[in-house]
Amino acid sequence: MKGIKKVLITVKTYPTISKKYDELVCTAGLQEDGAWIRIYPMPFRKLEYENQYKKYQWLEAHFEKNDSDVRPESYNVTDINKIKLLDTVGTDADWSERRKLVLKNQQVFSNLKNLIAKANKNELSLAIFKPAKVIDFLWERTDREWSKEKMALLKAKSQQMSFFQTPEEIEKEFSVVPKLPYRFSYKFADDKGTESTLMVEDWETGMLYWNCLKKSGNKEEVALQQVKQKYLDEFLKKDLYFFLGTLKEFHGWAKNPFVIVGVFYPPVKKQMDLF
Fold first, then answer.
1. Which one, of 19, 38, 249, 26, lies nearest residue 157 by Cα?
2. pTM for this structure?
3. Could you list the residue range(s) of the whole structural domain that residue 119 is in?
4. Domain for residue 14, yes or no?
5. What is the pLDDT of residue 162?
6. What is the rounded (10 degree) CA torsion for 91, 198, 212, 237?
7. Residues 6+ apart with CB under 8 A from 102
8. Based on the structure, what is the number of domains in the chain?
């Protein structure tokens, strides 16, 4: 349960404040044997976080099981100052190395009901899912500012937690990182034709929205359509997979505790041998 682990980071979600005010960014990845690991909680440091590690970068750290989180893949980093950054896996040769690392030692689920059953038995909380059909990419309006009440509680809690920054640092970071004014979701069907709509909480989705908004001269509708064009039109031409993760507060009992915490979209392989 304890020890040094080497992890390929595959998941970074856009910052949020949970109802318990302590889950800011979900970071997860795959170990060398293909087993999932969630680094929870991970301190949120806006500028340092962006430069600290990238998606598809290997890192090495000393981990121990997070006893406050029943999800089987959730671990703490015992000393964030000793995280060692290693090589980044690129997209050469049609993503061959990424594809091998992500898919070779992992079960790819295609039936959502079976996956939810495993989560409710606490057998897993992270998984790779292959939709049988992607139907739409949706968005809905949400609050445009971080909740003052949640911010106050988060700042108060940070004073008791050595791996978070000071209340002043947290307030500064959340004033720099804008809250997304929209929730994005995929509507899709699984291998039994059952349709579902799950939120997409990938860091890349949020950053794409802000980049499109800036390039469009702050025209939100234009930016939203450009995000949809990427996630629907462009990604449907790829070999699309979802990284699914359960929300801590819904894990083990909810009708569907999953959200899409990342999207994996290598080119479609023409060869029979994927690896």
1. 19
2. 0.87
3. 3-145+171-264
4. yes
5. 45
6. 50
7. 10, 30, 128, 241, 264
8. 1
